[in-house]
Each structure stands twice: as C-alpha cells, then as structure tokens.
Amino acid sequence: MKPIAIACDHAALDLKGEIMKHLTDRGIEFVDYGTYENKSCNYPDYAEKVCNAIKEGKSELGILVCGTGIGMSMAANKCKGIRAACCTDTFSARFTRLHNDANVLCMGARVVGAGLALDIADIFLDTPFEGGRHQTRVDMVMALENKD
Length: 148
Fold this sequence. Notes:
alpha/beta; 6 helices; globular; 5-stranded parallel β-sheet
C-alpha cells in the first residue's frame, strides 16, 4: 500500500497528531502535508495538497481533518478524481469505501473525539471497494466532473 496522504488545518492539528501516532502504531506509512502549527490557515490549501498526492499517484487514500470535516470535504471534492466523504460514524466510513470507493476521508476535530476518529480511520483504511453494481454508480458520479 502506498503511504496515506494526511493534512489538517489549525483547528485539527491535535487530532491529526493522534491519527498519525495511531497509523505509526499500526505500521501504516503516511506523508504529512501540514499544517504543522495551530496558527490560522486556509483548509483548501491542505485539501489540495492531499488530493494532488492522490492524483499524482503518490498515495491511494487520504485523510483530511478540520473543525467540522465539512470544509475539507467540500474543497477535496472540487479536485478531479477525488471522492471525499465526511464521516462522523463507523457505518458511514465502512459504506463509503464499500459502495462509493471514497479515496479521501474527512473528519471534524470539533465533531468526533480522538477515539472515534481512530475507529473511523481504521475502518476507512481497512475496507475494500466492493465493485460490481457499485462501480457503475461510481463511474456515473465521476462522469459528473466532465459535465458543464
């Protein structure tokens, strides 16, 4: 597996640290695309860095965290080829991989605690895409990028 691309904004620096420690404990490689301090910053910049890592083939999956997860999700989904899902529970994390082949997990540090965030990340990273009839739907979603 390629390294996981991970980034956050100032609101989620501590949670990103917890996630990175957890990934290290699991032996999962990652690349940290920032931010590295809790000084106010712009989440779209960090979403773009993670999405570019995926588009360039450096990573297959990414994790983005901000205050709510919503801003990161919105920014990531503007990037071609990205299917980002904002998850606040393990069920959504499982099914966004099984049925939607999401390649970026977004979470909110002000919404989920570290324990739940680690469970969500584990399920997201460990769940494969089911394919089959779901591939047709993923293809349809991706085709929307090319419509005016």
